[in-house]
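Subject: sequence -> structure tokens, single chain

Hey, anyone have a minute? Need the predicted structure for the following. Not urgent.
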Amino acid sequence: MNVLTCTAARRRMGAFHDEELPVSDQIAVRAHLEWCDPCAAAYEDMRLVRDGLRAAAPGRQALTVEEATTIRTSVVNRVRAEHTWSLAVRMRDMFDDMHFVYAGLGATVAMMVSVMAFAAMGDARRAWELFDLINPVRHADSPAGAARYKVEPYVIAADVYSVPPHTGRGGWTWYTGSAGWAYRMIIETFLGLKLEVDKLRFAPCLPPDWKSFKLHYRYRETHYRITLLRTGDRWDGPQKIVLDGSEQPGAILPLQGDRREHHAEVQFL
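Reply:
Had a minute. Here:
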């Protein structure tokens, strides 16, 4: 029987919980939890979080008081602890935490949601760093990377394995759930398009070296050619919106289905 270190056991806890490990690894993790009290406590916390996420999924019962308290306490404790962690340690633990969220969201979907969460907190740099890590093109941008990744680099994979002997290998490609979230992440989170019935708002989350970008947007059968331009230092500054040569009141681009082509410029001052 394999004897696991605490680090090795904790990296396998998510798969152990879902009984996805090889039999030998299932036995090794169970044996480790029987004698290691800290890991057993961590596994119990993980089990409650995972079961809570499952319970909170659409169409399922609400969280119990115990589950809600555990999730809240775990999040608060992690946020407090992270103040003393280096970026490398934060990244490592964040990827480990994807196993917690896997049961409720799916592996790559959990990563997409994490990227969106960093963007929502205003941390554009970290959001783009994480996106660069899960971008399938990056996994096969060299012969060695392609040989390790082994699957199509032009579609979203549900999983990228982290346990030997398949470390770095992709799995479950053409995964529509993850692809759908990736689309929303790029359009709504990074490019910042917020559709409100017949209006568009803009809240991009972009790297500081981006000065402008253009997009073609179709509203029903009407096409809008939109340029977003940063004239100030930040992408979250005041906005000036000009539609077909006329400045619009507020930070809203009105949409109408008149089947004509419209041109708009959104300036971030």
